[in-house]
Amino acid sequence: MLVATGISKSYPTPGEPLQVLRDVSLRLAAGDSLAIVGPSGAGKSTLLQILGTLDEPTEGTVQLNDVDPFQLEETELARFRNRQIGFIFQDHHLLPQLTVLENVLIPALANGRPSAESKERAADLLQRVGLASRATHLPGELSGGERERVAVARALLNRPSLILADEPTGNLDRRTADAITELLLRLQQDENAILVTVTHSPTLAAAMAKQQTLIDGQLQA
Ligand code: ADP
Ligand code: MG
């Protein structure tokens, strides 16, 4: 269960503070998927960062599975984030010098060397995203869509209860984008995770169970 209540975010400026989010609330259960759409600069990425515990709200609270992550001290918070939340970004953030398999295993490195179980999980996820035969390749040897699929596999490694995707198909052609969308939703359903996706794509938004628009820092139905 993801519950955000009365989230506001403002940034200091030399003049009036810049108010990015105003009193945003949402509630999502395991298996739910939500698309957040809205104009550029509306605060979509800011909201995703706050739900992902990467940024603190100015006001309001976030609870994921009954834990308020902002009450945790720093190392606890890092562990919580690593276990509970999977991130997928537009520019995939793969490490170019690591193989595809090693990139998928990055979330396991927080606990030292990856266990046999993590390696099995990584291989299984690569299979499910259709890249089993590319496990030893470097990201530079893959297409954009393939790199995004690696990022999807990596996000799921630790069986997160919450998957956050910020314009995951933004750099891809239409057909590749549709395939990634389908893949992401199938994996999210298989894993019974919550999925929140920020997108400009009407197709991707429509594929999610719920859609909301962020305008002037407020979430509209
Ligand atoms: P979106 O993802 O909807 O395009 P963002 O959440 O990235 O929008 O940004 C919303 C607004 O907040 C923008 O006006 C942006 O310039 C501002 N903003 C984002 N991060 C910061 C920051 N760290 N400091 C100051 N302003 C920021
Ligand atoms: Mg953004």
From TrEMBL:
<dbReference type="InterPro" id="IPR003439">
    <property type="entry name" value="ABC_transporter-like_ATP-bd"/>
</dbReference>
<dbReference type="Pfam" id="PF00005">
    <property type="entry name" value="ABC_tran"/>
</dbReference>
<dbReference type="InterPro" id="IPR027417">
    <property type="entry name" value="P-loop_NTPase"/>
</dbReference>
<keyword id="KW-0378">Hydrolase</keyword>
<feature type="domain" description="ABC transporter">
    <location>
        <begin position="2"/>
        <end position="221"/>
    </location>
</feature>
<dbReference type="GO" id="GO:0016887">
    <property type="term" value="F:ATP hydrolysis activity"/>
</dbReference>
<dbReference type="GO" id="GO:0005524">
    <property type="term" value="F:ATP binding"/>
</dbReference>
<keyword id="KW-0449">Lipoprotein</keyword>
<dbReference type="GO" id="GO:0098796">
    <property type="term" value="C:membrane protein complex"/>
</dbReference>
<keyword id="KW-0813">Transport</keyword>
<dbReference type="InterPro" id="IPR015854">
    <property type="entry name" value="ABC_transpr_LolD-like"/>
</dbReference>
<comment type="similarity">
    <text>Belongs to the ABC transporter superfamily. Macrolide exporter (TC 3.A.1.122) family.</text>
</comment>
<keyword id="KW-0067">ATP-binding</keyword>
<dbReference type="GO" id="GO:0022857">
    <property type="term" value="F:transmembrane transporter activity"/>
</dbReference>
<dbReference type="InterPro" id="IPR003593">
    <property type="entry name" value="AAA+_ATPase"/>
</dbReference>
<keyword id="KW-0547">Nucleotide-binding</keyword>
<dbReference type="GO" id="GO:0005886">
    <property type="term" value="C:plasma membrane"/>
</dbReference>
<dbReference type="InterPro" id="IPR017911">
    <property type="entry name" value="MacB-like_ATP-bd"/>
</dbReference>
<protein>
    <submittedName>
        <fullName>Lipoprotein-releasing system ATP-binding protein LolD</fullName>
        <ecNumber>3.6.3.-</ecNumber>
    </submittedName>
</protein>
